Amino acid sequence: MKTALSYELVNMYSSLADNMYLNYKWYWENLTDWTAAVGFDSISLTLVPNQFNVGRGGAPRCTLAINTKYGSAEGYLKYLNESGIQNVSSFNISAQAVLADMFESGAKFEDLYPILFDHADDASDMLASLKGCCLNVSPTPAIGALKANLGEDPAAFERFADEAAACLNKIGEMTAKKGIRTCVTNEFWTLARGAEFDKFFQKLDRKAVGYTASTAMLKIAGSDPLEVLDKYFDDLGCVFLNDTAYTDTVGTYATATPEYPQEGEQQRLYRDLGLGDIDFAAVLRLLKSRDFQGYVVLEPRYTTNVPRAVLRTRTFWTKLTKEV
Amino acid sequence: MNTSERNINYSYMMNQWGNINFKKVTNFNEWFMGDFDDSYYFQDWDKVLRYHAGAGFKGIEIMIFTVPTMINCFGSMKNFKAFANERGIEKISGLFSHHIGSEDKRNHERIFALERQAVDALADCDGVNLIIQPCGQYYGTGPLSDEGLRNAAACMNEVGRMAADKGLVASIHNEFWCAVNKYDHEKFIDLCDPRYVFYCLDTAQVSIMGIDILEFYKKYHERVQYFHVKDTTKKAASDEERFQAGAESADDGTRWFWEPGAGFVDFPGLWKLMKQYGHKGWIGIESDGTPNPLATMLLTKNYIDTVLDPIYC
After folding, report:
1. For chain A, is the Cβ count within 10 Å smaller at the N or the C terminus?
2. Cβ contacts (< 8 Å) between A12 and chain B: which residues?
3. Across the interface, do B114 and A20 touch by the CB < 8 Å criterion?
4. How far is CA A282 from each of CA A224, A275, A287, A289, A321, rounded to the nearest angstrom?
């Protein structure tokens, strides 16, 4: 079992007071220094499609930005290695990010999966150069966004899920040639959420596409992370440990802003690791008992204080590995 | 003095707050307990709008990239406007957009599609100014050929007409790192149709480009319909600094933009000229790059009250 820190601890879309600095290279290089200082030697990055405003900045959020600021993937890896980080274990890309980009790119909804495929092709090229192993793909836009484009017809959603699965299979075949394993993810707001995951996974070619699990996403969708990890153990690429104390009592998963609940008593989805309800000791016992060889990615998703979360994550992992 | 009694009113650009995702966050303890930080105060439109109204800013300006999020949150820009009005914001004065790739005619249809959405969004919230970055960054694009500059101007003219059809005013906003830059900035203005394309004078961006903003305003005051007010400590950056990859996001964290009064821009001189030319309307304040939006907003208000208003208000 190997560990990595997810840089999705930074919420690029937040309104916290220092938001502007998230676009600066030095911000991310500080984060890399802190990551190495607490003893992590691998990171996981989330990428969006190449776009002007992200691509001209210093956040490693798209291949264009990495090329702009480091010259190439090799240049970025050299920088990481010199900072104590050995590789980028995985990239996360999503159909939702492709859809969100369409507002500014002017692309049409029906072009979503061709664009996702090209995005995956570009990302997996760079990931191979960064010594990564898994391209984690969130398969569909948010259900709330799909309703706006497809209406409420269940048959339209079914056809859309088929299209998503076909695209993932194609991505899986394509990335395998580069030594990268494509894995589907299970965000609680997509058509592969919770109990729907079984049905969606059956549409996939299991030789071409694995599964990267996320504990908080499973729990918010009403699934038991332990049961799911056990059931799909042989398909696992990475396991993302993220925490939550959120219970979706108001149908947040199907709204236009699933990660930002506008209604209900609870509006905070994610907690730093150890501060939510997930039984991580049980998760780790399961992974150990079955000799999991992939990456456990520690993700204090969308933390409200990045340096604190880096320290907390090390403390959390040290305590957890002592306990289990 | 209320807004209708003033010649100029101040509007604050919201880009310093990033992308605001919540309408209203209500449960303090959910964000505070266990973390004991101030994140509760910086998550939602409700509080951020009230900070601006509380500090005496009755207008706001928004970025194009936040429009989808705002529509997701509020259902429509009309709803957003009503929400802002209830919190003391009287005007959505402007929306900032961009024409990336406008030097190539093949990109114009895509840009027009984006701008149709921008125009609709701004009109839906009774806004006024569509503020437009004319091209992408200089790095990788500039210097523009004569044909490229003409194409960028043609794109701007078409969008200007599109805005005018909805009762809006389109204005050029020239970044110091833009493909349209120091050497062709004025040529570009002259290529744009004065009936449809006006100018938003960004006091810091244009100063960093190496242009004397007072002389510029004297020359182009009839085209200058709007302002982005911010200061800078960097006068006339070199070509090398302006033309480097991702110049605005400086690799070492250099802060380009400051609250008025913290740099070298001659704001009293500019306000005297505004008075001389009888400028009227909303003026935008931008504080992109501040590490503390609240502190910057209050310092800016104090500067307006003590330095600018006594000259012209």
Report:
1. N
2. 19
3. no
4. 11, 16, 9, 10, 11
Opening angle at CA A131, ends A128 and A135, nearest 5? 55
For residue B135 the two structure tokens come to 């091209």
Cβ count near B236 (within 10 Å): 14
Q: Which fold has domain A2-323?
A: TIM Barrel (3.20.20)
Q: A202: buried, middle or exposed (CB in 10 Å: 19+, 13-18, 0-12)?
A: exposed
Size of chain A, expressed as the number of residues it contains: 324
Q: Say how many Å lie between the first and final Cα of chain A, rounded.
A: 14
* CA gap A246, A237 in Å, rounded: 26
pLDDT tens, residue by residue, A255-302:
999 999 999 999 999 999 999 999 999 999 999 999 999 999 999 999
Q: Can you tell me the distance from the alpha carbon of A264 to that of A252, in angstroms, rounded to the nearest whole number?
A: 9
Q: What angle do CA B170, B176, B181 make, to 5 degrees?
A: 80
C-beta separation of B232 from B204 below 8 A: yes
Interface probe with B: pick from A149, A267, A312, most Cβ of B within 10 Å: A267
The domain spans of chain A are: 2-323
Alpha-helical runs (H) found in chain A: 25-37, 52-55, 63-70, 73-82, 95-105, 112-129, 143-150, 154-176, 197-202, 215-220, 225-231, 280-289, 306-323
Contact A132, A89 (CB under 8 A): yes
How far is residue A80's CA from residue B24's CA, in Å, rounded to a whole number?
Answer: 39
Check CB contact of A19 with chain B, cutoff 8 Å. yes
Q: Do A68 and B48 touch (CB under 8 A)?
A: no
**Residue B79 corresponds to which tokens in the numbers above?**
């709803």
Tally C-beta pairs within 8 A across A and B: 131
- From the list A6, A35, A3, the residue with the least C-alpha distance to A292 is A3
The answer for A 21-50 residues in CB contact with B (under 8 A) is 21-27
Nearest to B246 among A16, A27, A58 (CB): A58
Span B66-104, pLDDT tens digits: 999 999 999 999 999 999 999 999 999 999 999 999 999
CB contact under 8 A, A271 and B100: no
Whether chain A has a CB inside 8 Å of the CB on B107: the answer is no
* Complex ipTM > 0.90: yes
Burial, A152: exposed, middle or buried (Cβ in 10 Å; 0-12, 13-18, 19+)?
A: exposed
